[in-house]
Structure formats: structure tokens, C-alpha cells
Write a structure and sequence with these properties.
By secondary structure, the chain is of the alpha/beta class. It has 3 domains: about 5-280, TIM Barrel; about 280-350 and about 360-455, no CATH class; about 460-550, Sandwich (Immunoglobulin-like). It has helices at about 10-15, 40-50, 70-75, 100-115, 140-145, 165-175, 215-225, 235-240, 255-270, 315-330, 370-375, 390-400, 415-420, 445-460, and strands at about 25-30, 55-60, 65-70, 130-135, 150-155, 180-185, 190, 190-195, 205, 230-235, 275-280, 280-285, 360-365, 375-380, 405, 425-430, 435-440, 460-465, 470-475, 475-485, 490, 495-500, 505-510, 515-520, 535-540, 545-550. It has a 7-stranded parallel beta sheet with strand order 2-1-10-6-5-4-3. Helix 7 (about 215-225) packs parallel to helix 9 (about 255-270). The longest helix is centred in the N-terminal third of the chain and has 15 residues, at about 100-115.
Length: about 550
């Protein structure tokens, strides 16, 4: 078995890494994110190195490369307020900058970002190389990528909805624009952070604050197998240790549970550095100007709403279609449901078990022919307006062998497909490929069955029960990561609760043509018995299994 049996464009689907690295990096972050450091930098650096906690990441901004974090949230929410990195947000929002349309909104944000983050310590400069952007409550990854940022990512953790969506947008933007994808985990949760012990110099720290170690593990593995080039543990250089007064016999700082989890995850990624290509056969194609923001505390008194494009424009039928699609794709995530800032959803709304798996990237309708052709299946979605040239790209995509899932609302861009549909055809052959038409206009109800059929066709596994899953492809093997996002409840400022009844015992069947020689479980190193092409495993509540199917 070759990776190219599944990956149409290996150069595009290979994870890109930063110029100064040769592979994945787990970072222990040391910086002033609204907290006081409890461990001096030189002591933290030595302990990070000796205890295997990844690499030290100073700042968030090191003064060498331009960087901006959570800028979408800052722009929409923090006019006149200080952001988490200490920056005063000026000139942002729509009060002084009312946009004419969606494209103008993107242009306004571009002008703002290069002005707001131009000076110390951010150093953004249009046309510069090495710039980094990440967002939290907004799905604006493609905008920064189109503006010339080389590193594109998302902040997860915090009270941020649906990590899977952030990974899909980040991975899609990175592949569409040739960027380095990154993920950044914040253990803050509604103003508190988990420190295990109360600490006089860290008043926000509480033993029951922050997030559970279960969701940290799941978020890391979703990111690692999902194609991230790095994973940053925000404030990890502080959260990993109890403090300078607690030292082991070896002279090392004693690790907190957070530190032990960091050590475990970094060790796993170092032991298994070759995980192949993240296999996502489905490209979800959004209108480039979708303006999607997840639920957040948008600025009060301005008329801004989280359920509007860019928090400003009334939704079109296409906008509502996009929202309904993602609600279906990540059912239970509370995707676009208003939540009061201090009564956020429990952790089970941040990562979801889903029948669709992590099988898709999100790209935008302006993607090049090369990018479109790299996905076996494309799903047009939202308020897409195609020029003649853009429409020709999708026709070319079909004719060279792709499958285009096309709502009736988009047939106006494809005269031949409209004529075939009017004549009674819902599945239309064109060249080597196929167009599958569904309706009514801007409805996603019929898409559920169609999408599941395509997943069955292209994903070479069936699962007897519902969990989150990712597939990675290597020469000679397939890695299937199973993540059970049920059974661990962690609500604001309370200890996590584990429900043993939420364990998932499921049969995984390989449906491809190669004979299965062996199956290894990589994370815990357990032996897995193979029955033909199937294995039966139990994934505990809030736990994981990483299965490598090896072929002759």
C-alpha cells in the first residue's frame, strides 16, 4: 500500500513546518498572559529541557517575526479595551468603520491589523516573511493567509467553541495558501486557570480552574494527527511546575498534573514522529467572505451579533445554510448559540463525537485549480458567488475525476448541469467525474445522507459506534486515531467528573483491499488482536486509542 493510493497531491497535503524546524514541535510557553510568572525564565528553560516538556517559547512575541494572536476577537470585541497580551485595541470594530459589504469588511480588517500590530513588540509588516496569525473565537484563518502570513493557526482551550472546526479551517487555509499550520492551547477558562495549588503571586489560579487533563490530551492528539506543525501549551512553562519551593531529589522542579500531561504528550510525539499525511478527502468550499465568528461576548451596545456575518451583516440564505451545515457537522457544539461570558458551556461542547469524523478541510471558493483537484470530493457551501473563470475551475475539477456536491442554488453558475438537472438528472456524469445535485435551494437536509455515502466510499474504515476519528496515511500503513469525547464533564470552576458508563467498546473494520498483517495501539502500547480485517477496542470516557493498521 502506498500513501499515494489515497493522497492525490502529496506535496500539497504534506504538513509544512517552520523554516527553522524539521518536524513537529511542542512548545512550553513562557509569557505574560494576564498572569504573574512563578518560575524564573532560566529555571523554567532548564527544567523544560531536562524534563522533556518540548521547547521554550518566549513571549508571545519575540521581536523577530511579526505576530498577532486572537486578532479577530480583538477587532470585533475589544474596542477601547486591553487584549490578553496587554495591547490596547484601538480603531477596531465597526462603529467608526462601517463596511459597505463583506469584501469591504475584510479590507478594513486588513488595514487595521497591519496598523495595530506594526510597532513593538508585534512587528507586523505587509510583505514580510515569517509572520504568524492565530484566531480564537473567529474563523478568519483564510484572511490572514491571503494577506501574506506564513504561519496560520488557532487558539483553542479557553471558552472557545468547537476545536474540530478550528483545526479544519486551519488545515484548509494552510493547504490552500501554502502556510505552516499551528495550534495553541490556553488553559484559561472564564478568568481562572488550573494551578493545582493556590499561589499568592497568581491570584487567578485555582485547583478547580482551567481545563481537565483529559481535554488537553484530546486536543493535542486532534492537533498532532490533524496536521499541526506545532502545539503550544500557553503558560506551560509556569503551569508545569508547582513552584521554586518544590524540588525533587534530582534538583528538578516538581511537575504538576498539567506538567505530567505535557511530558506524556511531548514524549508521544517524539516517539512517533512519522505519522504520514492527514487524510481529508472532502473539501468544504465556503464563500471567501463568510465572516464566521463563533459564539463570543461581542461588544454590547453596538448592535453587533455573533450570529451575523462579521458580527454586522444580516445573514443571507447562503449564510444561514453555512451555519446549519456546521451545526449538523458538529452537533452539540453550541456553534452559534449565545452564551453569557461567565456561564460558558462545559467541556463536552468543545470536542464532539461525530459520525462524519475529521475527514474534511475548509477552503474558500477562490482556491486554485491545483488545490481543488487535490480533494476527491468538494462540497459547495454558503453564499458563494462564482465568476465565469471560477465556475470553469469547478467544471474542470469534475471532468478530471472529482465529485462535486452541488446545491440547486448554485446551478445558475453551471448551465450544462442546470440543463441536465432540469431534464431529471440528479447525478450527472461529466468527463471522469460526477456532480451530485441536491435541494431545495440553500438547504442542507438532503446533504447528510450524500455526505455519509461519500465518507463510506473514501474512508477505508467503518466504526460500530460514534467517536471522533482521524485517518493518517503512510506507505504500508494507516493510522486511525479514535477520540471519545464523552464521559468527562468539566464546568466552570469545578473539578472534572468522569462517567465510566460512557466508555465506548467498538469494532473497527478495515474496508480496503489490502490484507491486514498487524494492528498496533500506539498511545498506550497495548496489544490488539485482529479478527480478519477487524479489531474490537474500548475507548474510555474522555480517552483515546491510536491504531496503526499495517499491511503486507
Amino acid at each position: 500500500m502506498k500513501a499515494t493510493d489515497y493522497i492525490l497531491n502529496p506535496a500539497l497535503f504534506a504538513t509544512r513546518y517552520a523554516a527553522d524546524t524539521s518536524g513537529f514541535i511542542g512548545y512550553s510557553h513562557y509569557g505574560k498572559h494576564g498572569c504573574n510568572e512563578t518560575v524564573p525564565p532560566h529555571v523554567a528553560e532548564e527544567n523544560i529541557r531536562r524534563q522533556g516538556l518540548g521547547e521554550l517559547y518566549h513571549a508571545p512575541y519575540d521581536g523577530k517575526k511579526g505576530c498577532c494572536g486572537e486578532w479577530g476577537f480583538t477587532f470585533l470585541n475589544l474596542r477601547g479595551y486591553y487584549a490578553g497580551d496587554g495591547m490596547l485595541a484601538e480603531g477596531c470594530g465597526w462603529i467608526e468603520n462601517p463596511p459597505r459589504d463583506d469584501a469591504d469588511a475584510v479590507a478594513i480588517m486588513r488595514r487595521w491589523i497591519f496598523k495595530q500590530y506594526a510597532g513593538k513588540p508585534y512587528y507586523l509588516e505587509e510583505g514580510a516573511t515569517g509572520m504568524t496569525s492565530f484566531n480564537g473565537h473567529t474563523l478568519f484563518q483564510h484572511y490572514a493567509a491571503s494577506w501574506g502570513f506564513d504561519h496560520i493557526g488557532a487558539e483553542i482551550g479557553e471558552n472557545i467553541a468547537c476545536y474540530q472546526a478550528h483545526m479544519a479551517f486551519t488545515r484548509g487555509a494552510a493547504r490552500q495558501y501554502g502556510c505552516v499550520p499551528l495550534m495553541y492551547f490556553s488553559n484559561w477558562n472564564q478568568g481562572t486557570i488550573g494551578t493545582e495549588e493556590l499561589h499568592p503571586t497568581w491570584p487567578q489560579g485555582l485547583p478547580t480552574g482551567g481545563h481537565s487533563m483529559s481535554i488537553l490530551r484530546r486536543a493535542f492528539l486532534m492537533s498532532y494527527f490533524g496536521g499541526a506543525a506545532s502545539f503550544t501549551f500557553e503558560a506551560g512553562a509556569n503551569l508545569a511546575f508547582y513552584g521554586p519551593e518544590r524540588v525533587t531529589e534530582e534538583g528538578l522542579l516538581e511537575l504538576t498534573p498539567y506538567g505530567r500531561m505535557m511530558q506524556e504528550l511531548v514524549a508521544f510525539s517524539a516517539k512517533h514522529p512519522h505519522i504520514g499525511y492527514t487524510y481529508t478527502p472532502i473539501g468544504v468550499v465556503l464563500d471567501h467572505y463568510h465572516g464566521l465568528a463563533l459564539c463570543s461576548a461581542l461588544e454590547s451596545g453596538t448592535g453587533l451579533r455573533h450570529d451575523m456575518a462579521f458580527g454586522y451583516f444580516p445573514n443571507t440564505a447562503g449564510d444561514e445554510m453555512t451555519r446549519e451545515f456546521f451545526k449538523k457537522l458538529y452537533a452539540g457544539a453550541g456553534f452559534f448559540t449565545w452564551r453569557d461570558w461567565y456561564s460558558q458551556a462545559p467541556e463536552q461542547m468543545h470536542l464532539l463525537n461525530t459520525p462524519y469524523g475529521d475527514t474534511h478541510d475548509v477552503i474558500t471558493h477562490t482556491a486554485s485549480q491545483e488545490v481543488l483537484n487535490s480533494y476527491p470530493v468538494l462540497v459547495l457551501m454558503g453564499d458563494i458567488q462564482l465568476t465565469e473563470e471560477e465556475a470553469r475551475r469547478y467544471v474542470t475539477y469534475v471532468r478530471q475525476g472529482g465529485t462535486l456536491l452541488c446545491n440547486t442554488a448554485y446551478l445558475r453558475f453551471f448551465a450544462d448541469y442546470q440543463a441536465a438537472y432540469d431534464a431529471g438528472a440528479q447525478t450527472i456524469a461529466d468527463g471522469e467525474g460526477t456532480v451530485i445535485v441536491y435541494g431545495p435551494d440553500y438547504s442542507v437536509e438532503a446533504l447528510d445522507a450524500i455526505l455519509k455515502e461519500q465518507i463510506k466510499k473514501y474512508i477505508p474504515f467503518t466504526l460500530s459506534d460514534e467517536v471522533e476519528y482521524l485517518v493518517n496515511v503512510k506507505d504500508g500503513s494507516l493510522i486511525l486515531t479514535l477520540i471519545n469525547n464523552e464521559g468527562v464533564t468539566k464546568v466552570y470552576n469545578e473539578a472534572p467528573i468522569t462517567d465510566p458508563s460512557k466508555a465506548k467498546t467498538l469494532t473497527v473494520t478495515y474496508t480496503g483491499d489490502e490484507p491486514v498483517v498487524q494492528v498496533k495501539e500506539l498511545y498506550y502500547g497495548e496489544t490488539v488482536e485482529v479478527d480478519g480485517n477487524a479489531v474490537t477496542v474500548t475507548v474510555g470516557p474522555g480517552d483515546v486509542q491510536v491504531l496503526e493498521f499495517m499491511f503486507g
